[in-house]
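Sequence in, structure out.
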Amino acid sequence: MALPWTGTVLVVLWVCGVGYSWLSCGLIGDGSYYLFDAVTVGPYKDVDHERAVPNLLAQLPLAAALAAGVTDLHWLARLQSLGWFALPAVLYSCAVLRTRQDPLQQACVVIAIAIVFMTSSFLIVAEHVTAYAIAMMAAAWLATARRLHAGDGVVLLVLAALSTRSHEVFAYLGPLLAAMTVWTVRRTPILPSLALATYLAAAALFVVSAALAWHAIATFEDKAYFASASSEARDFWKNPAFDLTSVAALVIAGFVLVRPADLRTARPWILVAPALLALVLLPLLVLTRGYFGPPFAYSQNIARFAAGLVLVAIILFMWAHPKLPAPRRLLSFAGLLFLATLPWNATLAVLFASYLDEVKAAISNRPGVIAYEDTQLPIKPWLLQGEAWSLPITSAILRKSAADGVIAPPRGYAGFLPYAAPDLPNLGRFQWRE
């Protein structure tokens, strides 16, 4: 029988995905650039990239729609958003289902979804999101293996193959999963030959993924960008949702490691309640102009590397599989932690949808290039969930007719700009339709 939180987590996770996709939230960050290139150049331009797996699989719904002749950019934006969200969501869902008979392991999976996915994945067009999901599904498969099955070995082999072209975080996740795979083989008394071969092949591919990740790091061309992105790991505390979920998990982890018997009492749950309450109340940040001020969505970006360290800790805990006196209480905590992240993610979705509406209002019936300073965007920073470099592309995607214009970056902007506003390629038959 499945555990009581299994259905709740899966339903809520996919409701979030459908809502996220319906609002076209996948246009945030690199999303508008990917969609713009898909309709002007074609999808799959990065299939030879070291992160080819997420780029290839996430664009399947978009590529299918383009092949079917869909020209409505609104629907294409929804399908692109769904593709990027669905890819990690499918992997996490499989991990939840795999652990449905083990409250301790399922608690670990749900905590990983809450901390790693829900707090660092609003900018969904990012390959690390899929990489973490691959690692969590593999860990769930290994932690719940009681004997070697060829079917399980094939699943691990597929996950290991996907990991070879996903993200540089497999520089450390690859060896961890390889070691976990070999340990699973060594502790199993009966070793069917086919199952043994698939497990060992998976372990070898996890090692290959680590080697490829280290090679990608060593040969990364833009050293300044890499250093800047890596330094964000030290600033993870600027992401309030990540901080609160991590603090809540650390409190419970402390009891698990030091005083596990207390999990049967009310003490640990009372101590963790303020962090859960603060998570629920995070949307109140939009009323402030303090340190955690706008643009709110981009605070998720600075937790993307720190989230990997959290995932490692969770996988190690799953591997150890300690005996706890109240595993179902731990699972209930995990479920509540996951639910507590929803108000903030809903707030980000509403803010980004409002930002798109503001851009559409700014370009409506104003042909040509529109100065950023001549729009209402500068005086509405709480809506500013886009980046200067993507503003021309985003506004071009949102055009409903030739009478609409495109917005130039702010005056003095000298950063990355794939297309200057006057030089944007014509989108031809593609238009945004409400």
